[in-house]
Amino acid sequence: MKRANLISLAVILIIAGCQKTERAIHPEQKNELLCTLVDSTYYSYKDFPTAIIDDASFPGVSKFWYSGPLKIMIRAKMNSLAKTMKEEAGFSSATWGFKNYILHYTSTDGAGRPITLSESVILPVGNSWSHKCSRIMLDNPYTHLDGKACATESLGLTSAFVTDDLILIRPDLEGYGISSDRTHPYIIHPVVARQTTDGALAAIEFLKQRKLGLAEEYSLYNVGCSQGASYALATQKYIENDCDAGVQRTLNLTKTICGGGAYRPDDVFSDILSADELHYAVMIPLTILGIKRGFPEMMEGIEISEFFSEKFLNSGALEMIEKKEEHSSVVLDLIREKVGNSAADILSEEVLTEGSTLNTIIRKALERCDLSEGWLPRAEVAMYHNPDDEFISYASAAKTAEMLKDGNISFKKVYSIIPSMQHSGSLFTFYINLFTEGVK
């Protein structure tokens, strides 16, 4: 092939690539992050609630969450939004609905290497005019083992918030979606916070470049429940401590709202070691796998198997967790049946011994993930926690808030609407209250 033809072909390929690629700014080094639109789905305003319900990923409690009262609340929000959009359109028969965009964006893993991650961006859209939202909700994912429950595979319950006239950004994070072949850096807050921030930047830049429903002036609301609450608080810490003024202006973080999960990891690990019975045993292997992925230099030369008992290694639970094909309830049942339900059943003797090499690795890793030290929140933080939470210690959450009290933070109690499920039930209370009152 002649050189001129080669040059022409190269130009064509470059142009084709540029047509599919959006650009975002890296929060630290200002490197270009590639953000690619890979898919989109339109939902009519009539179909959207049904799609959310069909994607529910809470066996046993999803029926409660999506019961009649909540559907009535969603419809009320949608009717209010419909009135707004029709007034903007200037005619009463305006056609509108919701668009779910799936994006791939570039971030960094725990070893500092580039990694491609995925996220969902959902917003209300109108036909033949552009509706503008002035609020963005950044949804930090709770703990889930099933890969199909991630943001790009399932709408999830937080998608209902889009009916409240806002844009929703839902990062998958490492280990899910496009990066499902990798281990999630569970609890490793510095790594997760950076990836979440990169996702928010990529989504905002995508919306701006495509002129998709984002008002010129907007506010970012950073929300999470359970482990997602800690991820949300970690994201605010990262934005305020590690991002430059330009990135902070782009994000315009206004408020972080945490439900039942912002805690001190080392305190919770101590609670796990001392407990006679664990309510969420999968947190142990998830944490150890997370340290291996998020802080690889701390685990160099050490096999994952060294952290666990023979009973646990022979149960098949670790393989089930790594495959990400089952709901956590299935894995918990397997652990209870074949291993036992205490740290002594799951962990090796060395991990249980304070001061040992493996115990020290976990302690030091979790200390690096402490959200109560090294900063004071500038943007508003609202924390909610159930005093009877059986999964995450109320004392640890209260201690986090106390250590940050000189910053812009409030700490309030929230109670479960399901008496038999104090942790999960209080999260439903948190979301219902937030949905009723609005993200503000």
Question: Would you write up a description of this structure?
Answer:
The chain contains 17 helices and 10 strands. With 440 residues, it is of the alpha/beta class. It has 2 domains: 21-264 and 377-437, Alpha/Beta hydrolase fold, catalytic domain (Rossmann fold), CATH 3.40.50.1820; 281-367, no CATH class. Strands 1-2-3-4-6-5-7-8-9-10 form a 10-stranded mixed sheet. The radius of gyration is 22 Å and the shape is globular.
Write the SSE topology.
Layout: H1 3-20, E1 21-25, E2 32-44, H2 48-54, H3 62-65, H4 68-89, E3 96-108, E4 114-126, E5 133-140, E6 167-171, H5 189-210, E7 214-225, H6 227-242, H7 245-251, E8 253-259, H8 265-274, H9 283-294, H10 310-315, H11 317-323, H12 328-338, H13 343-346, H14 349-352, H15 357-367, E9 380-385, H16 394-403, E10 409-413, H17 422-437
Strand content: 15-25%
In DSSP terms, counting alpha (H) and pi (I) runs of 4 or more, how many helices? 17
Strands of the widest sheet, in order across it, are: 1-2-3-4-6-5-7-8-9-10
The tally of structural domains comes to: 2
Return the CATH architecture of the largest domain: 3-Layer(aba) Sandwich
CATH topology of the largest domain: Rossmann fold
Q: How many strand segments?
A: 10
Q: CATH class of the largest domain, please?
A: Alpha Beta
Q: Report the C-alpha radius of gyration, rounded.
A: 22 Å
Give start-end ranges of low-pLDDT stretches. Answer: 1-31, 58-62
> How would the global form be characterised?
globular
Calculate the mean pLDDT score and round it: 86
Q: Main beta sheet: strand number and arrangement?
A: 10 strands, mixed
Name the structural class. Answer: alpha/beta
